Every structure is written in C-alpha cells, then in structure tokens.
## 1
Amino acid sequence: MASLIRYKLVFYVPPTALKACKTAIFAAGAGRYPGPGNYTECCFTTLGRGQFRPGDTANPHIGQLKTLQFVDEVKVEILCVGEETARDAVAALKKSHPYEEPAYEVYKLEDF
C-alpha cells in the first residue's frame, strides 16, 4: 500500500474568528488523522502576538493604514491528507478568515 501524501496547514487568526475558521477547514476534510482510530478535528493551537503595518491601499480588518499594529492571534496547525484536501482547506480558510490577506503556510510532510 502506497503512503498517503500529507500536508500541514499553518495559519494565524484572531481568537474571535478561531472557531469559524476551524469549522470551515474541518468541513473541507482537514484535521483527519489516518489510521485505525478514525480521529477527526485534530489540530494544535498556540496563542501569540502578531504585528503588521497596512500599506496605502490596504483594507485592514484591524488597525489603520500605515500604522504598526500588534494583535493577539492564534497559530493553528492542521494535518491535511492529500493535495486536494490541502487545497480545499486553504480555500475554506480564505473564505472564513476575517483578514484581507490571511497569513498561512502549507508544508508537504515526509513519511519516515
């Protein structure tokens, strides 16, 4: 049996939008751990502090143009099994996230 290709989606979100983003991403099929336990809605969260400065043409959800902003955010890490699931999870994130441009990363994982 061939190994399943796995990805990790990592994103940052204000605490008030955490539940909506996770719900949308889980509905897209992410957060399922392959194996006999049938685990779903798996993720890891870390509270932190982000910063950004909106440019001249930005439409920020939080803050003002050209002003450095500091915000409490949650870093979320979610497993995605298969490229289609990873792409669907990113699309769900973009639709559910309140920021104009959500910060996210996708990593292809190796199986050792």
## 2
Amino acid sequence: MTTIAAKDKPTKLTPEEYFAWEEQQLEKHELIDGEVYAMSGGSKNHSLISVRLITLFANHLEGSSCETANSDLRVNIAETNNYTYPDISITCDERDRATTQYITYPCLIVEVLSKTTEAYDRGGKFRMYQNNPVLKDYLLVSSTAIEIDLYHKNDAGQWMIVNYGEGDTIELKSINLSFSIEQVYRGLNLTPEP
C-alpha cells in the first residue's frame, strides 16, 4: 500500500490529532508537514514481492533483537512530525521498543515501486529518510522487471547506489544478509503496469 493520493484533510494536523483521526479511517494515510495523504493498494506483484522479502528477512533475523514490519507500521522521520508507511521496515534499535504506533530508527527500509509512486519513493521520500541517523539501506524493488536499486550509506555517511539485475546477489549490510535476486522474482508475471 504505497500510492500517494490527493490530500484528504484541508487542515494541518499535529501527530496526536493524526493518530486519533486515522484510527477512525478505513484506509491508511501518511502525515507530511501536517497534511495527510491517502495510501491506496498495490498490484498483485507488489504484494507477492513484499511477502517474499518480509519472509526472507524475518527468517534471517529470527532470534535476534531486530524486528521486521510490513506496511502497517509507520516510520517517524527522525527529528520531524512526519510519518510514512514503507512497504517493509526493519529496526534493531532499542529505542523503537518503547513505541507502539510507529518506529523511528529503522536500519533498512524497502519500497516496492509502482508507476504512481516511483518518483516520490526515489525523490522526496528518500530525502526524508536520509535524515535518519541509523538508516543504512534503502531498497527500491521494481514490480514489473528484475531490477532492484540499493541506496547504501557507507561508513563516511555518503549514500551510494548499487543497481542489481538478473543473476545478481543483493547484499544488505544493515542486516548482514545476501540473497539471489531470483528469490524475489521467481514465478512472477513481470508485465508493465497499464
């Protein structure tokens, strides 16, 4: 569930007002600079890819102090009152154990791309996520081609991009995991979105 839609509410909300208001809504909304934005559903491939990655990550991290979350968990953009719903987030930070409605310190965020969200996920959303002092890996996964882009923050604090394609092995240093790109795409019908 990642598509940004038109603004739903004309007045600016505080985080507290947003949490209370969203509890009464049928769909999820992101809060950016006091404004709420409705999130719509994704494609079949979007869902299948998300489930495969969540399963892969959760199995890898079983028994650790890290937690793997799906798109139902908000991420608070560090040092702001902005809240997003990434497709997948992983936190290993003890500070996130004290919150129940969101996390603030994920080390890995994954967005499965769609035609309507790709520009936002690569642009404005990534700029917000870069403010997180703990985030190491930002993974952008195509739902229409065997293509994954990894934005990785190196030890010097610089963001580097690695483009993966067919036959490649993805390396996520944030959670010490390597896996074949084919594990993500096996058996999927990769046709462009209409």
## 3
Amino acid sequence: MLPCVTTGPSNPGDPHGRAAEDPAPAGEDLAALLTRLLEEAGGKSQKDLADASGVKHPTLNHWIKRTRGTSRIPPESLRAIGSVFRGWGVEVTPRELFEAAGRPVPGQADEERERRLLDIYRQLPTKAQRALIQSAEAMLAAARVSH
C-alpha cells in the first residue's frame, strides 16, 4: 500500500490554498487508489474507466487530480468503478473504494430487507413517508460524520 496521503493539492479556486476536500482517510485516498488500480489494469486509461463505469470523464479526472471533493460521490458510481476494475481483473473491494473516498461503507444489499422497507413505506400516509425519508437522511448524515 502507498503511504498515507493526508491532503490534496490546493484548490485552484481557493485564495487561501486550502485543499479541495477534507484530509484523506488513513491509507490511500481515492486519487491514489484509482491511479494505482489504473496502473494495475495495464493499458487502461481514465477515459476507459469513465466510459465503462458511466462516470463522466471530467468528473473522474477531477477526483484523480484532487480538484474536486469526494464526499458527495454517489455510492452507485463507486460500486460501478469497482465492478469495472474487477471486470478488468484488478482486485478491489467496495470497502477500499468507499474508505478511500472518505465515505461510510454501505451495508450489504439485501433484497428481502429492501423489499420489506419498500412495503412499509408504501403503506404509510404521505406525511409519514416524508418523515421516514427525513429520518433515513438524518441517519445517513450521522453515519458520514461518525466515519
């Protein structure tokens, strides 16, 4: 594993030279991880990864250059990137990607739990549905902070 990267380069739009995002978690940050995985993929480019994962190339490039924060990357994008790498024969776990992005690692998807939650949601009146969504968003925000 590469040494810990604690900050990205300065954010070009910030006159105080602050990093584009908070300090990276222990281990590789997302930029270092993606760079290493692309090297391991042998001959694959950022454009190849962007096209295969459905992430826009300029967005992926910003993550790798550390000019855009990673705290709002959709979980689906991180999962898609991991799937592409694994399809190319490069080993990477969802946990590695989420931790490198400084994001809480989502629990395993369980179709039965998801179905049950959706069934409950559909049975609630509109006001209670909104309250459930607000509660879920608050739990997600708390998980991000505690990560």
## 4
Amino acid sequence: MSEPTANPHHVVGPKVYLAIGGTLLLLTGATTAISFVELGVFNAVVALAIAVIKAMLVVLFFMHIRYSSKLLKLTVAAGFFTFLVLISMVMTDYISRAWGLW
C-alpha cells in the first residue's frame, strides 16, 4: 500500500527542456525585435502577450505543473485569478482618479 500523499514523478527528457529553452530564447528575441517596430499603443500589448506566453511555458514545464495533480493545477489557477483580481482593483482605482485636475 502506497502513501496517500505519494505522487509518482513524471520524467521529462532533455529534448523537451531544450525545446522549451529554445522557444523561450526565440520569444525573447521576438520581444526585442518587436520593440523596434512602431505599433502605437499596441507595443505594450504585444510585449505583454509574449511575456504571458513565456511565463506560461516556464510554469507549465520548468515548474512541472503540466504533469502535476489537478489540485496543484487548481492552486496555481487560483493564484493567477487572485493576481488578476488585485491588478484589476488597482487599475480601477488608477483610472478613476482625476489626474492633473487638482
């Protein structure tokens, strides 16, 4: 009988790590390249989209969330949801201020 808290470890080969590492390097180069292109207000949007993709790859593969239990995936999702709620509350306060009108 195994322990109820025991979790079989998923072994990830070095090819996966090299592929993810190469993808992160390519996305870093894409971030740098896109900074030289004039997109107006979309410069920040594109840079943040690339950053979110890179963060997702790091969390899923290097932190082994992709191969973890559903409870751990739910915990990570709850953390991201809490982060989004806090950021939206801060942005609501920031947008509602009358900057420069006092």
